[in-house]
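User: structure tokens for this one?
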Amino acid sequence: MNIPATESGAPTEAVQRRMFEIMTLAKACDERLRKGISTGEFLTVYWPSRGQEAICAGLGVCLGRHDRLVTTYRGLHDQIGKGVPLIEILGEMLGRQVGACGGKGGTMHIADPGVGLMLSTGIVGAGIPVAVGLALAARAQKTDRVVAVSFGDGATNTGSFHEAANLAATWQLPMILVCQNNGYAEMTPTVDTMHVEHIADRAAAYNMPGETIDGNDPLEVYRSFSAAVSRARAGGGPTLIECVTYRFFGHFFGDQMAYIPPEELEAAKAADPVPRFADRLVEDGVLTREQVTEIEEDGRRQIEDALVEVLASPPPTLDELDRDVYAATKGR
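Assistant:
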């Protein structure tokens, strides 16, 4: 895949528009889910990703359809960026047959290999070794496929992160380790869990490139991701990218967020990456204010249309209980 860019390396206007579309859709979907849960329209468990939309926009335009992505339970935005249909995402979250996994996996376990989303995991750090296996497979199959794995700051304190980073570097795998550092490992501030200023500094221990970027600036995210994808695709090995961002809501929906200083949250929301990017696109002449409104309205319309189909779909039936759990054996 050739990542569309201008001669300066910046994304083309078409790519910038696509990034804004992804960010807007992720924002609107998060808002609609929280509204539906709050009003009792539907019931699900949800880990909000609002505020982290610039990261999924970068992933969405820098990864090709044949590239692989592994994400976490806080993965709504990543799933949208990778191209998983809204019906499959919402259907899985609401436990309906139209869900990506037939409504049996729930919010934590959404996968769509058809578009390259291989895993969403509820175990902190568990997806990173899986991504190593996927990257090793890509090499064994002699493809130019790149594997990205997304995880939070807390995951970098697990053994699975360090073991996987060591293998990825030792074997020089086509892999991008994307840390979405939103400042809190569940309810614990990142500064209380590690004695390094930047998570990306940990890359030095494995002799791989590491970079700390503004994870709320879509153009900065694009620059870093596109360079890492090109490096990995050319055989240059893995990269650790720390995207400094912020989550606007708690660890889970309903979290009272008593551990977050109000002034800190207020400052983060004032720097909301979605309207900030919209303003920049208008100032740069990429979009008009009317086009921004049209994109926002289209995103909300897509979500409502998907919800109509999802809510009309039944939940899994009892005969689905052991399907996809046990392998079928001939003669039994």
